[in-house]
Specification:
Mean pLDDT of chain A: 90
CATH topology of the largest domain in chain A: Cytochrome Bc1 Complex, Chain D, domain 2
CATH architecture of the largest domain in chain A: Orthogonal Bundle
Mean pLDDT of chain B: 94
Low-confidence stretches of chain A: 1-22
CATH superfamily of the domain at 129-297 in chain B: Oxidoreductase, molybdopterin-binding domain
CATH topology of the domain at 129-297 in chain B: Sulfite Oxidase, Chain A, domain 2
Order of helices and strands of chain A: HHEEHHHHEE
CATH superfamily of the largest domain in chain A: Cytochrome c-like domain
Number of strands of chain A: 4
Radius of gyration of chain B: 24 Å
Strand content of chain B: 25-35%
Strand content of chain A: 5-15%
Structural class of chain A: mainly alpha
Shape of chain B: globular
Number of domains of chain A: 2
CATH architecture of the domain at 129-297 in chain B: Alpha-Beta Complex
Number of helices of chain B: 8
CATH class of the largest domain in chain A: Mainly Alpha
Number of strands of chain B: 24
Oligomer: heterodimer
């Protein structure tokens, strides 16, 4: 079946009930409610979908950073430990091997998302939502992408204009 | 009498410069060998006769106990992966496949390359769950046990890190083995459940354009995948070369996306969520986005493009004497089957077609072979592959013009100056049989 036909068939199944489709497969998946997936449902999308309630400022983030992040990433986001990249670098990509850090991201949501799911490296998923916003604000502020007093929350974070946002080319749009 | 018959066959004429022979001689190798030697003598080129044969100790006593799970002979102790983080420091770990010491097309599970960004999770398969949710009609949870009852498929596919061959972006050739240069790519037979079967059960909201695959590792590593790919040939793989997937390759299940960059083949996959936009995860937004010359960058370069490299002979080997050798290597493409491989022994001045080992499978390693009579003079060995989509492996000048190279030589072969290098590799053989990595 071509992809288009498969999509069409699946769309039909969706529109008219999955009964016929399921009948052809073992059907051994257990139904679950979205509410019961909450603990795993952590991604944040570029338009802000998935951002939790809460807020934080660069000043609040600086204190948390010193305590929980600096040991690997270095004070003020520079001079990191061996094997760890710095968090502060100019958005200058004039070499194919230029240092890529937060200033490379197309969207600020990437920063919030990766800290939320992966950091601190030895204790991932332990930061509160306010801490995540504060750390995001601090790191964006260190890179001079937002002001020193800007508040990051579910509304402001997706609106941050990243310096490298307009330089990306989709490699092969027809393959997506 | 046999000798007389052999002498009637003329030595094969080279089909390209520096002694490349017709690949068709590989079909009748037994007969053609003597002719290929050119001398007509049945013995080695040195003319020294073999020593008288005798029984060695292992032929005179009972051997050791047969183990429950066997490992290679102790004499093969150097055929191992090279590791970037053997002490498990708080950073990622790479283990590279020793291509220069292997043959055929299947990478043994113990030598399959592995990259882990936060160590290997110790997952109890009885506790592991895979949830599919988001833009679906009915979110569903699967277990290893339930998936084991599904109709399965078995397919041979390579997995390649998008950063494989990254030292080749260096403006000067890094002196390193095929393992160090190209070891982040391996090939296995995968068995599992087509993802399309499971998506048929959950149903797909027409608004879904992408899905997130997410792992059970401590980083919850996730990547965005076009729905188009998910319905094409994606698989929830449970087995690797017939046994359960190795911990370093995604135990107990991984999202296999044939031909797509390795990082997207989510290991230990525990969540698939259908969404309407790409998530712009850390790895797609930064690590696997390539900086191009001219300060632009690519996003979503998912396909691993057509590529080949010679594994025998290559850096780390040496040719003991002039005479017959088989040049061989591997070719693969994320677009489909390999259609042709050309080999050169004179740095690209002339090329000859290599024999492709059957079966030639889509998005899988294909072993190519080329008979060669080395005359003892300097030679530069290269391979160049084509795939069934018509894509061709770019020559280095073309590649560098489009993708660039570093301004200063790369000194650390473990570094990643850029991603998606698929140009050719050149091995320079000197007059004494030593082999260097060269640009030609």
């Amino acid at each position: 079946m071509s992809t288009r036909n498969a999509l069409f068939a699946l769309s039909l199944a969706f529109a008219f009930g999955a009964g016929t489709a399921v009948a052809e497969t073992p059907g051994l998946g257990k139904p679950i409610n979205e509410a019961d997936i909450t603990a795993w449902n952590i991604e944040v999308l570029p338009d802000g979908t998935g951002l939790p309630a809460g807020s934080g400022t660069p000043t609040q983030g600086a204190a948390i950073y010193s305590q929980k992040c600096a040991i690997c990433h270095g004070e003020n986001g520079v001079n990191p430990a061996a094997g760890v990249l710095p968090l502060v670098a100019p958005p200058k990509f004039d070499r194919i091997d230029a240092l890529k850090t937060v200033t490379y991201y197309k969207y600020a949501t990437t920063l919030f998302d990766v800290v939320r799911r992966s950091m601190p490296y030895q204790m991932p998923k332990t930061l509160t939502n306010d801490e995540l916003y504060a750390l995001s604000a601090y790191i964006l502020s260190l890179n001079k992408i937002i002001g020193e007093n800007d508040v990051m929350d579910a509304k402001t974070l997706p609106q941050v204009k990243m310096p490298n946002r307009d330089n990306f080319i989709i490699w092969a749009p027809d393959k997506i | 009498m046999t000798m007389r018959k052999r002498r009637k066959i003329p030595p094969p004429e080279p089909v390209a410069g520096n002694g490349l022979l017709d690949r068709r001689m590989l079909l009748g190798r037994g007969i053609m060998f003597a002719g290929a030697m050119g001398t007509g003598a049945a013995g080695s080129l040195t003319g020294a006769a073999a020593e008288p044969l005798k029984d060695d100790p292992w032929s005179l006593e009972m051997g050791s106990v047969v183990p429950a799970y066997q490992v290679p002979s102790r004499f093969e102790k150097d055929v191992v992966r090279t590791r970037s983080n053997p002490n498990n420091e708080f950073r990622n770990s790479h283990a590279r496949t020793p291509h220069h010491l292997l043959q055929g097309t299947v990478t043994p599970n113990g030598l399959f390359f592995s990259i882990s960004h936060s160590g290997l999770p110790d997952i109890d398969p009885a506790q592991h769950k895979l949830v599919i949710h988001g833009l679906v009609k009915q979110p569903l949870v699967y277990t290893v046990e339930s998936l084991s009852r599904y109709p399965m498929v078995t397919r041979m596919h390579f997995v390649e890190c998008a950063g494989n061959s990254a030292p080749m972006f260096s403006n000067e050739p890094v002196q390193a083995t095929a393992q160090a240069l190209h070891g982040l790519c391996s090939n296995a037979e995968w068995t599992g459940v087509p993802l399309s079967t499971l998506l048929e059960e959950t149903g797909i909201d027409p608004k879904a354009k992408w899905l997130i695959g997410e792992g059970a590792d401590s980083l919850s590593l996730h990547r965005s995948v076009p729905i188009k790919k998910a319905l094409d040939d994606a698989m929830i793989a449970l087995y690797q070369n017939g046994e359960r997937i190795q911990p370093g390759n995604g135990y107990p299940m991984r999202l296999l996306l044939p031909g797509y960059q390795g990082n997207m083949n989510i290991k230990h996959v525990r969540r698939i969520k259908l969404i309407d936009q790409p998530a712009m995860s850390f790895y797609e937004a930064k690590t696997y986005s390539q900086i191009l010359p001219g300060e632009k960058m690519w996003l979503f370069h998912f396909t691993m493009e057509v590529k080949s490299f010679i594994t025998q002979p290559s850096f780390g080997h040496s040719l003991k004497e002039p005479g017959y050798y088989e040049i061989s290597g591997i070719a693969y493409s994320g677009n489909g089957r390999i259609s042709k491989v050309l080999v050169s022994a004179d740095g690209g001045k002339s090329w000859a077609q290599a024999a492709l080992q059957e079966p030639v499978l889509p998005k899988a390693f294909t072993r190519f072979r080329m008979p060669w009579r080395w005359d003892g003079q300097p030679a530069v060995l290269q391979s160049r592959a084509w795939d069934e989509s018509g894509a061709v492996q770019p020559l280095r000048p073309e590649f560098v013009a489009a993708r660039g190279q570093t301004n200063t030589p790369v000194t650390n072969p473990l570094g990643f100056p850029n991603q998606h290098y698929n140009s050719i590799t050149s091995w320079g053989v000197d007059g004494s049989g030593g082999i260097k990595h060269v640009y030609a």
